[in-house]
Amino acid sequence: MARTLRDQAVDLGRELAGLVKKFQFRDRNESVAYGLSVSQAYVLRALSELGPLKMGELAGEMRLSVSTLTRVVAQLDRKSLVRRTPDPGDRRVCRVALSARGQALWQQIEDELVAGDLAVLQTIPSAERETVIRAIARLSDAVDVWRRRKRDEVET
User: Fold this and answer.
1) What phi, psi does 48 have (nearest 5°)?
2) Helices and strands of the chain, counted as H and E runs
3) What pTM does this model have?
4) I want to staple 81 with a disulfide (CB 3.0 to 4.6 A). Which of 44, 47, 102, 129 is the partner?
5) For strand 53-54 and strand 82-87, is the pairing parallel, antiparallel, or unpaired?
6) What stretches of the chain adopt beta strand conformation (E)?
7) Which residues are paired to 96 by β-bridges?
């Protein structure tokens, strides 16, 4: 008997919750070992991948309010892991970038996370690895499409 779309949605939610929990704990365990919260580690990751960002851009990327992000960035600044500078085009706007110390710390954390990801991938048959990665990317894109549609419905 064919399963309904609703049954598949229930299973998707269950599987995603389990996967997110496993990865969240992995991220937490790695970042806590370096004296960071998960949010702080995600900010370091975003700045490492995207380069210096305005606070509003970083808040959008992190899906946090600017006030919440400001607290996280202030904590990272006190640890000398980021630097905040006024935006050259608008001195009321703050830009955030990784400091050399922040980049070095993120590289250590990322190396440990990648080592874990390598171990996980090695348990998946090599012929299936690219398919799994593409499926996760496609799922992420689908969530973005759903969120945009939901946002557009609210705005209209």
Assistant:
1) -65, -40
2) 6, 3
3) 0.79
4) 102
5) unpaired
6) 53-54, 82-87, 90-98
7) 53, 84
Nearest 5°: the CA angle 99, 54, 104 is 20
Phi-psi region of 99 (alpha: psi -120 to 50; beta: other; left: phi over 0): beta
Cβ-proximal residues to 68 (8 Å cutoff; 6+ apart), any chain: 59
| Identity of residue 36 | L
Amino acid letter at 39?
A: S
Single out the residue of 85, 31, 19 nearest to residue 53, CA to CA.
85
Let me know: does 52 contact 99? Beta carbons within 8 Å. Answer: no
pLDDT digits (tens, 9 = 90+) for 48-107: 999 999 999 999 999 899 999 999 999 999 999 999 999 888 888 899 999 999 999 999
Residue 73, token pair as written in the block: 């960035």
